[in-house]
Amino acid sequence: MKQMLNKVPAVTLIFWIIKIMATTVGETAADFLSVKLKLGLTNTSYIMAGLLVVALVFQLRAKRYIPALYWTVVVFISVVGTLISDNLVDNLGVSLVTTTIIFATSLVVVFALWYVREKTLSVHSIQTTRREIFYWSAILFTFALGTSAGDLIGESLGLGYPLSALLFGGLIAATFLAYRYLNLNAVLAFWTAYILTRPLGASLGDLLTQPAKAGGLGVSTMIISGIFLTSIVLLVGYLSWQPQQSSAADAPLAE
Prior knowledge:
Elements: H1 13-36, H2 40-61, H3 67-91, H4 96-118, H5 129-157, H6 161-181, H7 186-209, H8 221-241
Helix pairs in contact: 1-2, 1-3, 1-7, 1-8, 2-3, 3-5, 4-5, 5-7, 6-7
């Protein structure tokens, strides 16, 4: 199969900052479109799925890592992953326990197929279309799993938004420390942190936008989505001006 330059960014501190903001946008933008604009979950899902497909086609056709294109796909896939979970729970009445099991199983299946075909789950060498398809499939299920598992843990423990954010932030920090000092496998550390950033971002989004009586700060979802999207655009613009890093690192955080 024809090889290309590595199609994903180096895993640096900026990578994780943008990723967390993208997950927050996934939560707030989905709420803004479905509730504030009254599109509903179904219509919002159709629209965002269509935009994701278009962006993903351009991403798969690209021969190298293009920051703006890559992060556009991440933002769209964040929203779609959130909507998949929300549709199953809110529209179809599937329990959070069931959706968590479904998405966890689906992610394991993707990883298993990926490893059997490619003998690696590393993001260091996303250099063929097949590997990139595995990569984006895994990303989609990490967002959906993070949404369901995050909601399940938050509701089951009744932590509230601030404590939920601290919990998931702490788990990410623990993953990094285990990688750095306890020789946790780099690939396992990366994907664990990637999954955990989804409920962290969702908790931050809910903390900022939910009404005070529900434990949030009551800021408009449109304002938060706008601020975070603007921040993402600025950071991606900065990355676009930097010398291209064609090889992604396996480290879960900046070296």
